[in-house]
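Annual report, structural modelling task.

Input specification for the calcium ion complex:
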Amino acid sequence: MRKKLIFAALMLFLLMDAVAAVAAPKLNTFERPAAGGAYTLSEWGFDGWSAPWELGMSNRTMIDSAYSHTGGKSLRVFYPQGQIGPENSGAQAPFTLTPGQEYYLSYWVRFSSDFSWGTTEYAGKLGLGLAGGAACSGGQACTGYNGFSSRIIWRSGGQAAIYYYHMGNGGQYGDYAILKNSNGSDVYYQKGQWINIVQRLKVNTVTGGNANPDGQIQIWYNGVSAANISGLRFVRNADKVDKAYFSSFFGGATASFAPANDSYVWYDDIKVSTAKSDICELDAGGCVSRFYQAENYSNMSGVMTEPTPDAGGGQNVGGIDATDWIAFSNVSIPAVGTYLVEYRVASPNNGGKISLDINAGGTVLGHADVPNTGSWSTYRTITQTVQIPAGTHQFGIYAVAGGFDINWWKLTKLY
Ligand SMILES: [Ca+2]
Ligand SMILES: [Ca+2]
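The model returned the following structure:
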């Protein structure tokens, strides 16, 4: 009897663990590493992303505080003038996923304002794709036993397309489909602004070694359906989606595909999940966010306001000592989830510490260390990731340790 109970408890524990493993999406906000350094494969590893090999990560990437979709940093990838192919352009790494019949992949990109689509011929691969097995690509014939791949590309003038290798490839290379706006016109990437791309890939079923034509690829561009390709056959074997394939470079086989000037793409908020509900970019209105000027608190203890030297002007909250706080009432959180919290802070001191709470301090959501930013006039965005329950809350920003100023703060749903 007792053994049975222990066995049942063990099974429940294992089941819960399995559910948790499936439920949590893979995420990268590029907020952990210090700005200015290369984002090497081992740095990816610290953030939970592993790959058996890479190209370009150690010499053509940088964690950059110049641009961010959320938080204060993003991943900058460099595409040197005159260079093509993953050895000399961009970056590549096939990040490992728990094998799944279908996956959703979301990421944000920002092309440099003078991004070059090519010299006299125009093609390149952008960001991450989904792949499985031996990731059939690069002019290979896909047999159903050597995997598949599906990646986003640009064409002449920045025309956007999905490029996919499947068993029914029309020619030597993969097939592509131009992304479409809701009015039927072609999608062209906009430079100098953040763009969201979501891909869903569902592997076909297999019956007795035959590939059933029920595989599918869907693309959303800024939350709007831009491609939906069904009837696809990818595999005859048990291969699933098992890679989030970072694969971005210029080419094309000749230098005519190379960029005419040094070009960059910034990447942020990469998410991969088996569940559509984790991709809040596909929710109506996108991912919930809330933004507050610090000086617009509804209540406070011990602080003062003053003109801010930060970009955008207005005021900031200062005079913050340990145990001081500011509160913000009637903050509506429509859905439970994991949120990124941003604080815009300045401090010439070491050791500042914020805690974020709800229920008048009764529920502490998390802590964030405030670094020495160099001076009272040097503002930086720091972040933390917290779980927030649904409801209308009063949020408290509490100084565990003081010595910093705060200009604004923001919540953004991650998943
Ligand atoms: Ca970021
Ligand atoms: Ca302010």
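Residues 293-295, 308, 314-316, 407-408 surround calcium ion (ligand 2) (CB under 6 Å).
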